């Protein structure tokens, strides 16, 4: 709560409480018929009432300032939240782009003379060794032993080949 708001509320309450005493004097003077005391008491009542109104205006200004500060604070919090979401989205986009770039990178496999000799011994024909490298960063190796070809991923795990399904619909 703003200091002006507190000052206004306390001042208005105090002056309204102080207003009760001269008003009580006014009522007693009226019963007695003392017009001079009545006029003087009403002067005090009016004075305290005016001060209470002034303090009410101070409290209103303080509440407007409080409301403005609250709006500015809410606005700054929204802007911070928006900025945070933008940064998170940029980081996510960077990660997505990075993963896309990793998938586009290719690995080159060179087989040494010793490796070629071992391939020939195992019955694999040497066809420039790069024929066994796929474009999707996997290495396949097939042998003449009748085994199914195996595809290895970048992580070194065996990947199952995708099987195509032929569906025919006749109407």
Total helical elements: 3
Our Rg estimate from Cα atoms comes to: 45 Å
Succession of helices and strands:
HHHEEE
Q: Kindly estimate the percentage of residues that lie in beta strands according to DSSP.
A: under 5%
* Strand order, sheet with most strands: 1-2-3
What is the β-strand count?
3
Q: pLDDT below 50 for ≥5 consecutive residues: which ranges?
A: 126-144
List the topology elements:
Layout (H helix, E strand, L loop, with lengths): L2 H30 L2 H70 L8 H9 L17 E3 L8 E3 L5 E2 L12
Helix pairs in contact: 1-2
Q: How would you describe what is shown here?
A:
The protein is built from three helices and three strands, in the order H-H-H-E-E-E. The protein is mainly alpha-helical and 171 residues long. The protein has a three-stranded antiparallel β-sheet with strand order 1-2-3, with no helix packed on it. Helix 1 (3-32) packs antiparallel against helix 2 (35-104). It is rod-shaped, with a radius of gyration of 45 Å.
């Amino acid at each position: 709560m703003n200091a002006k708001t507190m000052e206004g509320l306390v001042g208005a309450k105090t002056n309204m409480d102080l207003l009760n005493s001269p008003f009580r004097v006014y009522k007693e003077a009226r019963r007695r018929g003392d017009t001079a005391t009545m006029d003087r008491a009403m002067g005090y009542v009016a004075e305290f009432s005016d001060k209470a109104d002034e303090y009410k205006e101070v409290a209103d200004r303080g509440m407007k300032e409080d409301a403005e500060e609250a709006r500015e604070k809410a606005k700054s919090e929204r802007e911070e939240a928006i900025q945070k979401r933008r940064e998170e989205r940029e980081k996510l986009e960077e990660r997505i782009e990075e993963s896309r770039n990793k998938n586009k990178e290719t690995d080159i496999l060179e087989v040494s003379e010793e490796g070629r000799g071992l391939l020939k011994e195992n019955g694999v024909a040497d066809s420039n060794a790069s024929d066994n490298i796929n474009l999707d960063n996997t290495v396949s190796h097939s042998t003449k032993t009748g085994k199914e070809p195996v595809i290895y991923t970048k992580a070194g795990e065996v990947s199952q080949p995708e099987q195509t399904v032929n569906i025919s619909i006749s109407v």
